Amino acid sequence: MKKVALITTGGTIASKYNEDGRLVAGVMTGSELCRMLHLPEHIELEIYSMLQKPSMHVTHEDLDRIGEKMNELFQENEVDGIVLTHGTDCLEESAYYLDLTVDIGCPIVVTGSQRSPEDTGSDANTNLRDAICAAADEKLRGIGTVVVFNQQIFSARYVKKIHSSNLQGFGTFGYGYLGIVDNGEVILYQKPIVKEKHLAVSKELPVVDIVKCYQGADDKFIRTCISAGVDGIVLEAAGRGQVTPGMMAAIREAISKGIYVVVTTSSEEGEVYPAYDYLGSAYDLQEAGAILGLDYDSKKARIKLISLIRAGENVRDGFARK
């Protein structure tokens, strides 16, 4: 018998329609959500309804409480796996944050749905059942937090929402998914070679914003960040890590004031790299003191930067190639 803990937080997977025919996310409890799952007989399910929120209402404080609960369930309840249900809009961010900050000896699987349980052809029950079966499987031990969606298993670091409404809502550009869940059976094709370092975060929450670079962009958003006293800025730059010339003076000022600046790329695949030498290039940014963020997308880089600061780790080392 395998014991799996299910932590529910709301989202579309726990939504119902209101009188106006619009979805209200997160109104269903965990018990309501599990009524029609028909789980395999070898899985014992424990349900914990921690939140009933839309995805974009979930905070880092919420995630810290969830992480503490996961540690408690593993240490005291001796569960074999943990499933977290979550709204899809920022599911990828929450999954990666948990991957960085929760270090326990059982699988952690995050899932959600693109359609309400009340919709025709809903993916809610299928995704939840697949996630529970995956969490109960020994093959997922030791590879960090994963996302199970539409039968596919994804690494938390690289998964992202790729469609706003289609049932194939999540994907991983470049590296592909790790495996599938087929009729309750986990079939793995690959595992990550490098495991993210566990970060023991403090209670203090730094402010880190994302600034997107585009043709003709000026420095007003960088200067707004400086005025607001942020702790870090993630630049979603173009290509190999280029920004416009009009952004560079403000970026240099931010770095001189002790604000961490991490450079990422808006491209779906590939890394930032100091390949060019001109004003606003990745090399110019690096020489100014910015940190090149490898192949992290801007949202994952923000989660990583926040976690590194909270853990008191060397930020530059945290983004170095392992």
Please outline what is shown here.
With 322 residues, the chain is an alpha/beta fold. The chain folds into 2 domains: 2-188, Rossmann fold, CATH 3.40.50; 208-318, Rossmann fold, CATH 3.40.50. The protein has helices at residues 30-33, 60-76, 91-101, 124-135, 220-228, 245-256, 282-287, 298-311, 315-318; strands at 2-10, 16-17, 23-24, 43-53, 81-85, 108-111, 146-149, 152-155, 160-161, 170-171, 179-182, 185-188, 208-212, 232-237, 260-265, 291-292.
Model description:
The structure is a single chain. The protein is built from nine helices and 16 strands. It folds into two domains: 187 residues, Rossmann fold; 111 residues, Rossmann fold. It is elongated and about 60 Å long. An eight-stranded mixed β-sheet has the order 4-1-5-6-7-8-11-12, with helices on both faces. A four-stranded parallel β-sheet has the order 13-14-15-16, sandwiched between helices.
